[in-house]
Design goal:
The structure holds two protein chains of two kinds. Chain A is an alpha+beta fold. In chain A, about 60% of the residues lie in helices and about 20% in strands. Chain A has a single domain, classed as Orthogonal Bundle (Arc Repressor Mutant, subunit A), CATH 1.10.10.10. Chain B has one domain. Classes of the chains: A alpha+beta, B mainly alpha.
């Protein structure tokens, strides 16, 4: 069995950050969400949300689309196929980790 | 929000949890039922129900704008099962209405369909909240029991409220329950969303 510590080290650092994991989990559950809805769902401030979304966009995990709705700027965020796969894999890794940690005995 | 599972659930069902959206159609049904109960014979002047429907449509647009401006927009991914169940619900309701107007059976099929709709709402959208889940389930059980009440000899419960027909009774109850349920779901929605916090 791979050690629990090796499994922890193998986790995707970009996604393991709680705010980003929360964002990706929310986006994986819907087609797309706008900036305000993501703020409401995660409780992040607009500044923090912008920073996290930029990092996720740079990694190709989400796509940001800026548009105007009723003359007001609106940012739609959509998870990419890569983002969906990475998020699913991450949750699977966490689930495996949880299962292995239960069996783990300190030497 | 306590857990990431709840974040997932809220993102998945975001517009459905915005309960006030369900209030205008329920209110429309409620008022038109009361209007229909006042009619003697076939109605000739339909101005009143048309005005009620327009007012409820306006109310729906306002509520929609309120949610979009304050809580943002989420485009849902509707599962095939959910789509099938919603379509089946509409077909069943129309069939039940048709059968109930013929008075061919003693129980109310429309009441049972309304009960199923509340039951579906409870199990599909309200499971994370025991209170909202229980309220929806209780409303579903009340409707189901009333629909089946003729089997145990209880006849024409609706006449106790001055209503002329079973269809009016179930429509009125569905309207009242719909308004109550919509308000409760809205309170649950706004209370469950996290408050804005600083995070790294």
């Amino acid at each position: 069995m791979k050690s629990v510590f090796a499994e922890i080290a193998a986790l995707d650092k970009l996604l393991h950050e709680p705010a980003r994991l929360s964002l990706m989990t929310a986006l994986a559950a819907c087609k797309s969400a706008d900036f305000l809805a993501l703020q409401r769902l995660t409780g992040l401030t607009s500044g923090n949300l912008s920073v996290h979304l930029s990092k996720l966009e740079d990694a190709g995990l989400v796509v940001l689309e800026k548009q105007f709705i009723e003359k007001k700027p609106n940012t739609q965020v959509q998870i990419t196929e890569k983002g969906r796969q990475v998020t699913e894999r991450h949750w699977q890794q966490l689930e495996n980790l949880r299962r292995d940690a239960q069996k783990w005995q300190p030497e | 929000m306590d857990s990431i599972r709840q974040t997932h659930f809220f993102a998945k069902n975001y517009p459905q949890l915005q309960g006030l959206r369900a209030v205008p159609p329920a209110l429309c049904l409620l008022v038109i039922t009361l209007w229909a109960n006042l009619q003697h014979g076939p109605a000739r002047d339909l101005t009143a129900p048309i005005l009620v429907a327009l007012a409820c449509l306006m109310l729906y647009i306002l509520i929609n704008q309120y949610y979009n401006r304050v809580y943002g927009r989420v485009r849902r991914t509707i599962s095939h099962l959910e789509f099938f169940l919603q379509t089946a619900g509409v077909i069943l309701a129309l069939t039940a209405f048709f059968i109930d107007t013929r008075n061919v059976i003693h129980i109310s099929l429309l009441g049972l369909v309304f009960a199923v709709i509340f039951g579906f709402t409870a199990f599909w959208y309200c499971r994370p909240s025991p209170v909202v889940f229980t309220i929806n389930l209780v409303l579903a059980i009340i409707l189901a029991l009333l629909s089946l009440s003729p089997l145990v000899g209880i006849q024409e419960w609706w006449s106790l409220f001055g209503l002329k027909h079973s269809l009016l009774g179930y429509s009125l109850l569905y309207g009242i329950f719909g308004v109550i349920d919509g308000v409760i779901l809205h309170i649950y929605f706004i209370r469950s969303l996290p408050t804005t916090q600083e995070a790294t």
